[in-house]
Write a structure and sequence with these properties.
Elements lengths: L1 H7 L15 H16 L5 E4 L5 H12 L2 E5 L10 H6 L6 E4 L5 H7 L9 E4 L3 E6 L2 E7 H14 L2
Parallel strand pairs: 2-5
Antiparallel strand pairs: 1-3, 2-4, 5-6
Helix pairs in contact: 3-6
Length: about 160
Amino acid sequence: GGEYFKMFAKKTNCLGNNVPKVDWKKNLKTYLALEQVIQKELVASSISVHSGGLVIALAKACVGGMLGCKINVTGMSGGSNSAEVKLFSESQGRILVSVASKNVKVFEKMVENIAYAKLGAVFRDGKVIIMDGKNKIVDTNVKKLYSIYHSFSNKMQ
């Protein structure tokens, strides 16, 4: 959670001050599996999880397609029960993918030896909802994310 840590570094007991080790063998296996499912045209979209973690990758994916989603981080592994860790971790080798429902079974068969978690679904309604169990932790819409993203991007020019 490097970006998260930068924002909250003045607080005590904050997350993100430990850099994870890169497991290149595991990552290579993941990237090769991704290449195969892309070649089979099973993936509707994919984006690497890096700066800002899963929550930023998810926002970029939603803005990219102007689509909404509803996800739940409860089922994610990774050694922590904290929604903050799950959403903001910048651990290497993670990829957010969307798969059309007609392709899910074939996709799962092809990645059965790769650690993955089903997080939720994509919707055309533009709502972006992130749950942690029964707790709603994000409730926004893709138009708002689009506006924020482009406002920030325009300031950088």
